[in-house]
Amino acid sequence: MGTVRGARVVVTGAGGGIGAALARRFAAEGARVVVNDLDAAKAASVAGEIGGISVPGDASGVVPAAREALGGSIDIFCANAGVGHDGGPEADDSLWQQSWDVNVMAHVRAARELLPEWLERGSGRFVATVSAAGILTMIGSAPYAVSKHAALAFAEWLSGTYRHRGIGVHAVCPQGVRTDMLTASGTAGELVLAPSAIEPEQVADAVLAGIDEERFLILPHPEVARHYASRAGDTDRWLGGINKLQRKLEDLEAIEAASGTSG
């Protein structure tokens, strides 16, 4: 893939899951890869495996150190780090704030650092791991669904604003992926995500194909496109379907509570 071979790539949240799969795939395609993760040991492990460079720490501030590690420039930035919290309006403000900071503002802060260099030279590529929750929703997790909608909106804005100046933007929107985040999603994840869950490597394959084809919206689960069209075409009917899932979730949680088990 000509757009990837020899490219200087940064992947945040790359100590495991989708991020690690992306780092491995970019390295296999001949890219120089910075592996970023809050967990320094995990970042170092993945970087050692692929011959990459470990730059641990908060994804919000990784660009300067990653740029230096790559010799002064970044070609592709994968804003992959993310968090998921359960609950609705009752969820603590700290959980809403962390969702906003990690799932949205880390993307904004990275773009703020990257754009001057990219606009000056007329090229650069921003890959945002958004999740299907960003174009649909996720029952049981308002902080995640809301912040992922915002992440998609920011990626759309970047693409609409800068594509004529050589900036490529991609929004990656998988449904269930077999990662620690899916395991932690409890009954809602088992109901909505687990049945069609795919491996992180399949997401990485879809991302590389989407980059090669210059597609903004990358859907590792093709059926998401149909759901997205349904959401836009008949929103009330679509929301009725989401509410049906919600009622099913509540029934399952009631059964679990009665039996003393937990998803």
Automatic annotation (TrEMBL):
The keyword Lipoprotein does not apply. InterPro entries: NAD(P)-bd_dom_sf, Sc_DH/Rdtase_CS, SDR_fam. It comes from the Bacteria. Keywords: Oxidoreductase. PANTHER family: 5-KETO-D-GLUCONATE 5-REDUCTASE, ALCOHOL DEHYDROGENASE, PUTATIVE (AFU_ORTHOLOGUE AFUA_3G03445)-RELATED. Belongs to the short-chain dehydrogenases/reductases (SDR) family. This is SDR family oxidoreductase. The lineage of its organism: Bacteria, Bacillati, Actinomycetota, Actinomycetes, Kitasatosporales.
